[in-house]
Amino acid sequence: MQKLIDSPFLLNQVKHWLATSTNGYLGSGYGIDLKAYLHKPMNTFDGDAIIDKMRVDISALGALPRSVINLYFENAGLDGKKLHITIGDNVLST
Q: Mean pLDDT over residues 31-50, rounded?
């Protein structure tokens, strides 16, 4: 039986991607330095660049329409930010 690529699978892939620093795998640019984005001012934030890198690194996301994947940051306290990624109706918050 073939395994389906469903929302929980994609969310687990995104969780892994978020937890892996850039170049965490030798010879691969897979991953993201999320702290570098979290320490930037909100007015310099480029969410499209993060989504584009995510779509390149996780090939299953590349097959989805662009409108299905969204992300946004929100302020959390005085000096914190929370990242929310939506894939369809599913939300992943860090």
A: 79
